[in-house]
Specification:
The complex is a heterodimer of chains A (427) and B (307). With 427 residues, chain A is of the alpha/beta class. Chain A folds into 3 domains: 20-107 and 273-345, no CATH class; 115-270, 3-Layer(aba) Sandwich (Rossmann fold); 361-426, no CATH class. Chain A has helices at residues 115-124, 137-141, 163-185, 200-209, 230-238, 258-270, 300-306, 361-365, 372-380, 384-389, 400-404, 411-426; strands at 20-22, 28-32, 42-43, 50-51, 56-59, 68-69, 74-83, 89-97, 149-153, 190-196, 216-221, 253-257, 276-282, 290-295, 316-319, 326-328, 341-345. Chain A has a 6-stranded mixed beta sheet with strand order 1-14-13-17-15-16. Chain A has a 4-stranded antiparallel beta sheet with strand order 2-8-7-4, with no helix packed on it. In chain A, strands 11-10-9-12 form a 4-stranded parallel beta sheet, sandwiched between helices. In chain A, α3 crosses α6 and α9 crosses α12 (411-426). With 307 residues, chain B is mostly helical. Chain B has one domain (18-289). Chain B contains 14 helices and no strands. The longest helix of chain B is centred in the first third of the chain and has 24 residues, at 42-65. Classes of the chains: A alpha/beta (427), B mainly alpha (307). The interface between A and B is large, with 63 and 37 residues.
């Protein structure tokens, strides 16, 4: 089998050997009403109200959204407007912690007997894909197609990030429990776990955990970015190609992140919804890289402080990894459900783009076998037909093309602008 | 905390820049240039310095006049200038050599928009301009090491030893005579992934095959004239050669076939420059018909059969 292209990146997994730690409880959490792909939730608490951990504070506005829960116990201080990093504005519930972390009495292990109950419970848990995109998990489980294979995404291909690796090393039992739940309720017979061959500790732990499992296999992946991208992962674990006009579910494949599965199992036992997550804190401004378990809504500042960050030197803050992460405009922004990393960088890499020399490095780096230099040219010419011919829609913004370009051209960024342009043309 | 920078992902870039690539090409050309200087003496060195220096100056001046940002630091002008010089006989008057650089940099490269926009390899056109303008100066050869004794190039005389051709103990252009030095440069470029060996191999391979089929000596033909220099350093120019591996293969075979035809049947003893120029012109068309299929792309025919 021919492997898909990609790039070799410096790993920088400084926090890999560090256990997941819990940070001191934040004094104030700010919980925005949009932490998933879809429409924002409506706040259902009022200012001054007492709330408990796990209490629902945001109700879904439509049937695709998932609810949002309080991550600390305390008093609702305010309901403000929150500016997302993409500029959109959503309501935001601010809760002052009373330090007690009283659990909401309604949090009980859900009754799970049928697939419908399972899907409904997953929705009520507020679970979204913890890998980064924030797609509501219940919607994946609710696809009408018959699923025959579960592919578990254990690839953590972005530099720095180690949260999933730590989950494997520390909570492999929960991960396995989550896999069993999904396989049981969706009647899936086969499961493959994809993980990079360069994670020996995690690989060993996984191999040990699934040794007695007949239907679960561990697939080592090449240490090439981006292994965690859905289509790349599917191809490298099952050799199946997802056609451009189909979804993985059309092939009978369900892909789930390893930390998401661990959460699902924990939820099935305790009934505590998604109110905390693991975030890797690193970057060259951080003296103590670490993996932190933090309540949703904690200010980034608290995480940086715990990791002994040199605040004066920080020039760039990233939510996520350096390849696909999003720049944060302030260290006061809260941790969201989708955030898997927090990087504080002291250097801004900005270089003026120069002329394309047609060296073809972008083409040879693209895992989707696109031709970024041709896409860029078509975008500058505003040639919608050519953009479609070159399959712009297959670009997943992994950033390989921009990374390798010796002329420092922002190829991946232009592809996203081109998608916007196509949308405008088509409407 | 400072004001934070906001930017689109990715936030990391490879340190490799265009200038580094050009630097590697200059390094790869060094063995051939050094051999030329030792073999043909100071005169050859002056020609190389003149073409390289003037190319950089022309680039600088052209960018100033056209009011575009300066680009001399990317090294592409130096590469073009050096290639022009290596393609000239050592006895050429320096002012004529400078005209070659002018044609390459100003006319072919900058007038079409600078690096990445030229439709033909600048150094090739520079050489062709000189060949047509000053035919006698461009075909006045001195043997290697023997000062001012005129002699025919091995391509014309047809009586050199393989070993002399390989090591460059023959007459010819400054940079073309020593196949060993050029091969060394080519291997260096492949190891550093500056070029892939597809174009040089398909060019040399197809040319050797055609020559053998026509009853000539393929090894002699491959080692003599500007073929090694052209196939390794000129035909592999990023801007004017196809981008996909299959496109490169077609390009190389086209160059090989045309070089064979021109050497056998045209009035010129040499065909490399014209062959590469002609294939340069075909490159946009080759590119269009050799696009790679994206991963998971559904082609029109398949869609039709599904319906």
């Amino acid at each position: 089998m021919k492997r898909l292209h990609g790039i070799q990146l410096p790993q920088r997994k400084h926090a890999e050997a560090r256990k997941i730690e819990t940070i001191p409880l934040p004094k104030l959490v700010r919980i925005p009403m949009l932490m998933h792909l879809g429409t924002p939730c409506t706040p259902i608490v009022t200012v001054g109200e007492q709330v408990c951990v796990g209490q629902k504070i945001g109700a879904p506005a439509d049937q695709n959204a998932v609810p949002i829960h309080a991550s600390v116990s305390g008093t609702v201080r305010a309901i403000t407007e929150f500016t997302n990093v993409n500029g959109s504005k959503v309501p935001c519930v601010e809760i002052e912690s009373d330090g007690l972390q009283t659990l909401y009495p309604g949090c009980k292990a859900p009754v799970l007997e049928t697939r419908e109950q399972f899907v409904q419970a997953v929705r009520e848990s507020g679970c979204v894909g913890l890998g980064g995109a924030g797609f509501p998990t219940f919607r994946k489980l609710n696809e009408p197609q018959k699923i025959s294979m579960l592919i578990v995404n254990g690839a953590e291909c972005e530099p720095y990030l180690t949260g999933d690796s730590r989950q494997i090393i520390e909570n492999s039992g929960d991960i396995l429990g989550g896999i069993h739940l999904v396989m049981q309720f969706l009647n899936i017979k086969e499961c493959k776990i994809g993980i990079e061959s360069t994670r020996p500790a995690a690989l060993k732990q996984l191999a040990y955990a699934v040794a007695a499992e007949e239907n679960i296999t561990v697939c080592p992946l090449p240490p090439v970015y981006p292994q965690g991208a859905e289509k790349v992962l599917i191809y490298h674990t099952s050799a199946r190609i997802v056609p451009e006009d189909k979804m993985p579910a059309d092939l009978g494949i369900l892909v789930m992140n390893i930390s998401t599965l661990a959460f699902l199992y924990q939820y099935s036992r305790t009934g505590i919804p998604l109110v905390e997550r693991v975030v890797t804190v690193d970057g060259n401004a951080v003296k103590k890289p670490c993996n932190l378990r933090v309540p949703i809504g904690t200010p980034q500042h608290d995480l940086l402080k715990y990791a002994d960050c040199n605040f004066d030197k920080v020039k760039k803050l990233l939510s996520g990894g350096p390849m696909m992460g999003i720049t944060l405009y302030s260290d006061e922004l809260p941790v969201l459900k989708q955030q898997n990393g927090l990087l504080a960088l002291t250097r801004v890499s900005h270089s003026e783009p120069t002329a394309c020399i047609r060296c073809g490095r972008c083409m040879n780096a693209c895992p989707m076998r696109l031709m970024p230099m041709e896409l860029s040219r078509a975008y500058h010419k505003k040639d919608a037909e050519m953009l479609r011919t070159l399959r712009l829609s297959l670009c997943m913004n992994c950033g390989c093309c921009t990374y390798v370009c010796p002329a420092k051209r922002p190829l991946a960024e232009e592809n996203q602008l081109a998608k916007q342009f196509l949308k405008e043309v088509e409407s | 905390m400072n004001l934070l920078q906001a930017s689109a992902s990715p936030h990391e870039r490879t340190p490799l820049r265009t200038g580094h690539i050009m630097g590697l090409v200059l390094l790869a050309l060094l063995p051939a240039a050094v051999h030329g200087c030792f073999s043909f003496g100071l005169q050859a060195m002056f020609v190389l310095l003149a073409t390289t220096g003037s190319a950089v100056l022309f680039e600088c001046a052209a960018r100033l006049i056209f009011r575009r940002p300066q680009t001399i630091l990317d090294g592409s002008a130096a590469v073009t200038g050096l290639l022009v010089g290596l393609n000239l006989p050592p006895t050429i008057p320096v002012w004529q050599a400078v005209i070659g650089s002018f044609a390459a940099i100003v006319v072919v490269k900058q007038m079409f928009g600078g690096l990445g926009q030229n439709f033909a390899n600048p150094a090739i056109v520079g050489r062709i301009v000189l060949m047509i303008s000053f035919p006698s100066a461009m075909t006045a050869w001195t043997g290697a090491g023997t000062d001012a004794v005129s002699s025919a190039t091995p391509l014309v005389s047809g009586n050199a030893e393989y070993w002399d051709l390989f090591l460059g103990n023959t007459a010819g252009c400054i940079g073309e005579s020593c196949a060993a030095a050029l091969l060394l440069g080519g291997i260096f470029l492949c190891i550093w992934r500056v070029i892939t060996p597809v174009i040089p191999l398909s060019y040399l391979g197809s040319f050797a095959l055609f020559t053998w089929l026509s009853g000539n000596d393929p090894l002699y033909q491959v080692l003599s004239g500007g073929l090694m220099l052209g196939s390794i350093f000129m035909a592999t120019d990023y801007v004017t050669s196809p981008i996909t591996p299959f496109g490169k293969l077609i390009f190389g075979i086209g160059c090989g076939g045309l070089t064979f035809l021109l050497r056998q049947f045209s009035g010129y003893p040499e065909g490399v420059s014209f062959a590469i120029l002609l294939m340069n012109l075909l490159t946009p068309y080759i590119d269009r018909f050799t696009r790679i299929k994206p991963f998971g792309a559904v082609t029109g025919e398949k869609e039709a059969s599904n319906e």
